[in-house]
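Practice set, problem 2.
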Amino acid sequence: MAPRLKERYQSEVKGKLKEHFRIQNDMAVPKLLKVVVNMGVKGAVENKTRVDAAAKDLAMITGQQPTIRKAKIAISAFKLREGMPIGCAVTLRGDRMWEFADRLISVVLPRIRDFRGVKDKLDGRGNYTLGLSEQTVFPEIELDKIEATQGMDITFVTSAGSDERAYYLLKELGMPFQTPAAKSGKSKKEAKA
């Protein structure tokens, strides 16, 4: 059975995109290509086991074994040597990508305390990155088993080519972008007045 978000993209979102941007060719319709989840591990220089713990957490969150990222250059001020493990990352494609995106949009983001939506700033080429300050917002993580809270960056890579098309694609997929009232810090009633 295909992931729920993928079915929604095929049945609803794809048609809306074709209509909104007047796209004739099905292959030209913007789509989600991959999702990259990256964890830079703070304290990895002092404590080598932190990278392993972060990789284990990332594997539980994404359902895929992460690759360990190593330092490319040495920085003596940070006691960092070239080749030291300093983070981990996962690139999700296919059904795993759709399942992760669905879980992130419908379960994880609403669990964040005082959540008012994600910023709507894209990178200029139709890709979107959002940051989470800790891995404990994912239901797969058991709070009593984590060694240290760890943040992560999640990048949605699309075939849109422009921010406008990518924004519309992500919005239709359910990404909870901030409303103008939430950006300014006002309530909806104050924004209308």
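Problem 2, part (b): a different protein.
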Amino acid sequence: MQSATCFRIALACTLALVVCAPILHAQNDKPDPNAVPVIDGGIGNCSADFTVVDDSGSPVYDAKISVHIAYGTWSLRKMDLEVGTSAAGKARFTGLPKRTKQGLFFQASQDDRQGSAFDDLAKTCKAQFTIQLEKKEQ
């Protein structure tokens, strides 16, 4: 009798976990708009931290920052990375190579505004940039 009761309790707990786990998981999947988004290139130990602002100096949420990386022998290996900014206008690239043939040109954009930054990784392996977005010229 006691084993049947234990079995029913164990079964009820298992069913509760199976039913509730997806609900709890879905509630925790909401991104934190204040967390700094990070994308890792996985090809070195250099990094670039960004703050994206508008023409009044206010942070820009969900601006896209992209970079094309050509690296390795004769720059034959290529990689494109993109990350969006947090509510504070912040984003980070990690795992960047120490050397590239021509440095890295970062482009930021949102709607009809854009801005850019250049990094020579051989000189500034841990770079920090502020990019001001301006209206695209037509």
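Answer key, part (b): Strands lie at 38-40, 46-53, 64-71, 77-84, 90-96, 104-110, 113-119, 126-132, 134-135. The chain has one helix and nine strands.
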